[in-house]
Amino acid sequence: MAEKYKNLINGKWVEPTGGKYIENRNPANWDDVIGLYPASTVEDVDTAVAAAKAAFEKWRLVPAPKRGDVLKIVGDKMLTRKDEIAFEMTREMGKVFAETKGDTQEGIDTAYYAASEGRRLFGLNAPSELPNKMNLSFRVPIGVGGFITPWNFPMAIPTWKLFPALICGNTAVFKPAELTPKTAHTLVEIIDEAMHEVLGRDYIPGVINLVHGKGSIIGERISNHPDIDLISFTGSTAVGKRINEVAGASLKRVSLELGGKNAQIVMDDANQELALEAVLWGAFGTTGQRCTATSRLILHEKIYDEFLEKLIARAGKLKLGYGNDKGVDVGPCVSESQRKTVDEYVQIGKNEDKAKLVLGGEFASDGTLKGGWFYKPTIFADVKPEMRIAKEEIFGPVLAVIKTNSLEDAVNILNNTKYGLSSSIFTNNVNDAFRAVRDIRAGITYVNGATIGAEAHMPFGGVKETGNGHREGGWTVYDFYTEWKAVYIDYSGKLQRAQIDNY
Prior knowledge:
Blueprint: E1 7-9, E2 12-14, E3 21-26, E4 29-38, H1 42-59, H2 64-80, H3 82-93, H4 97-117, E5 126-127, E6 133-141, E7 144-148, H5 156-167, E8 171-175, H6 181-199, E9 208-210, H7 215-224, E10 230-234, H8 237-248, E11 253-257, E12 262-266, H9 272-284, E13 294-300, H10 304-315, H11 336-351, E14 356-359, E15 378-381, H12 388-391, E16 398-404, H13 407-414, E17 419-420, E18 422-426, H14 430-439, E19 444-447, E20 463-464, H15 477-480, E21 482-490
Parallel strand pairs: 7-8, 7-10, 8-9, 10-11, 12-13, 12-18, 13-16, 15-16, 18-19
Antiparallel strand pairs: 1-2, 3-4, 5-6, 6-21, 14-15, 17-20
Helix pairs in contact: 2-4, 2-6, 3-4, 3-6, 4-5, 7-8
């Protein structure tokens, strides 16, 4: 019988209130049951929030460098267990072992970066307009955070949210994706162990709370709970809009990281081999299940036929399979429903006028693949910018190839979606590169690099309907998890009036 896992609430591992569980299965082999995870209730959320609210009054008073000591130990523990975490992550969400090791390393990097920020939560001072008076400012924690994360980066994305929040002195109620509960369980287990080791008898229960369950129940309650002060969500644009609507009623601080429809431009002077490697990685890495995935390839007309021929040949050789097996390039879609969505978009592409299916476009179910949710790497050629497969997020191994005749036209095509997360241009012309950086409307632009591959110490996020303007990663995220507090110290011995005409 599969192992039953629990929620962590107020420092204790507890069963869900309703006693119900959700199966977690391997998308590469659906007969492989990984575990049973809590189908939690609103009552579980309420208990977790109450614990986090009580813990906040103690955790906020722990010196930030001491909080950093906790995250340093978290990083050490993750490093020791990296291969184990990666293996189990591949088992529950499908991407290949090299990628899940990278996902885990991203979390490790984020832990060490956040740990060091415990000594760099700088304030700013400014001179007063009045004599014998000092003006200071400080960053202070906000309170209880609600964190709702996706399945495609089940270690990296939670760490992007939780680690900065914790180092700033906030407490957390964490709802991971239903499809990747084990990775979340391991992360929270490690954080709780580090809390015990660093704080000892001063351990504070409730700083980190894990509540598994369905988004429609747990996510909704996190969004409308009166004692949750901030929310960070990564997922679909539709769900993000719902969270923003609900949370906005109580003026919660909300960070949304949503969809993408990213494009790679390849100009006629580009290094074609480099650009080819990039689009193969960007389009079919993680089976195309990244918000930064390359779902559009914009090729200059002078190299269009030559590049497309090479691309079809290379993509056709990619090996599908269970990501923990050696030599596998592409894993399965994360679920049957996700594969169905991908196939629905492929059928849309087939029916759109003049789009040409040149590779893939069907389930992969031969031999060892028959037990999983595999889909063949798929390429459409001669796609027009207004087609649905060129404008809507598919979140699967489907690439739309579009022809362009100039840099200006290529940039206009790239910008022609409601999203603006990642982008890429391949060119050896430095002037074109800088023009593209200037004119592309996206939160991230790569020059001679794939659209995927963000670094932990840089801001991550997009424009338009990709999010609501906040950034994760880097130094900018710490402003989201803190409030600015201005302090005026008057040592003149008399009442001095600012905002009065003293001239």
